[in-house]
Amino acid sequence: MTVWSAGRGRPGLLEPMGVHEEHRHRGYGRAITLAAAAALRDMGSSSALVCTPSSRTGAVATYRSAGFLRRPETHDCFRRA
Questions:
Q1: Which of 10, 40, 47, 49 is deepest in the core (most CB within 10 A)?
Q2: Hey, is 8 helix, strand or coil?
Q3: Angle 49-43-76 (CA atoms, 0-180°, nearest 5)?
Q4: pLDDT of residue 27
Q5: How confident is the model at residue 58 (pLDDT cuts 50, 70, 90)?
Q6: What's the Cα-to-Cα distance from 48 to each of 22, 23, 55, 79, rounded to whole Å?
Q7: 19: pLDDT confidence band, cut at 50, 70 and 90?
Q8: What does the alpha-carbon distance between residue 29 and residue 44 come to, in Å, rounded to a whole number?
Q9: Are 39 and 69 in contact (CB under 8 A)?
Q10: CA pseudo-torsion sign 26, 3, 18, 23
Q11: Judging by beta carbons within 10 Å of its beta carbon (0-12, 13-18, 19+), is residue 74 exposed, middle or buried?
Q12: Where are the alpha helices (DSSP H) in 1-56?
């Protein structure tokens, strides 16, 4: 997992991470996510954000278990017909 800080007092971003299927359901994803959020806090970030498609149910569950709140899905790019 990678964290991106926009500077002290500004939100930070956690990049999506994954856990190999042989190691799932052991709390590793939650622990990694909490450690990444703590790193952002230590850098002075005001909050932590993560972006993942809602179709990635495992990722959504992991982030929610780490205390993230689910927000409505938005799309960064789209193509008009």
A1: 40
A2: coil
A3: 25
A4: 92
A5: confident
A6: 28, 25, 21, 29
A7: confident
A8: 23
A9: no
A10: negative
A11: exposed
A12: 28-42
Residue that is written with structure tokens 């002075």 in the block: 44
Q: For residues 48 and 40, what is the distance between their CA atoms, to the nearest angstrom?
A: 7
Give the global pTM: 0.83
Distance CA 23, CA 27 (A): 9
**For residue 22, what is the DSSP state?**
G
- Tokens 């190691």 -> residue: 23
Distance between CA atoms of residues 81 and 35, nearest Å: 42
- Residue 54 is given by DSSP the state T
Contact present, 40 and 3 (Cβ < 8 Å) = yes
Please check the confidence at residue 43 and state whether its pLDDT lies above 80: yes
